[in-house]
Amino acid sequence: MSVTNITNLYFSSSNYTDDYYKFLVNQGDYQSRTIQANLYISKEKDRSPLPYSLTSEAVTVTYEYVNSNGETVKTAEFECAKATSIGDYVVTFLIPNVVVENYGIVRAQVKVYEDEYTLLNTSLFKFYVSESLSVGSIEDSVVPYFTRPILESGSPTTSTVGVVSQLYIDTDNDELYYCSNVSGEVYTWKPITELPQATETTLGGIKAAAKTSADTLPAKIDAATGILYVEPSPTYELPQATETTLGGIKAAVKGIGDTIGVKIDETSGKLYVSSSGSEDWGLITESAT
Q: Looking at the domain covering 5-137, what would its CATH class be?
């Protein structure tokens, strides 16, 4: 995930002013809306702040903004990702669409839940929302071409901020998810774990036995529909049997007077009948009756 805005946040804000945290966010530029926050804490008065090491704590961010109707709105809490590859005191988050629906100043605060009894709040920080000059405003249903996969520890939740079709990789087990829907502040992530079976209308996987020497016709795919095709089998016409050609014959339906059976010579393929009901068998010829 690209980061263009980096800010230092402190759990004790006595030595810092609001101006220290201001930065610019463009509505249509997802890079400017991606924030890296470095967390620091000072547990003693007048002591220099130290990086706050995150382990299993839950980290969220909340916003206060003015919507398109001019009303001040406070959001629910959005989950922050812990960027352990950068440092254990770093979190990242993508400012959601709803917060930047209007221009102007937005106030925000990061919260760290140390345990069920202890909540740490960072200093408030501000950013100014402006209209993007290069990309333009982007709705939830539109996917920017520069959206990158999210690489974080643990599976995504409904508060994991993303855009439709964005990928999420759980670095704990390499499981893959994609964002299928965004509705307000709720983000739907679906695992990519099972390939659907291909049907007439669904693009998916197939099962096939190993090729044998008898399988000579390759299957080809229609790039537009995803359907597989093979060349049509050649039309076979059974030849008529003759004295020298092995082939088919035509015969009328057996009647009451037809009592002499016909037998075949397995070597030559020729047919024989018994002569006058005796055990003497003769070749069927054109003059046989």
A: mainly beta
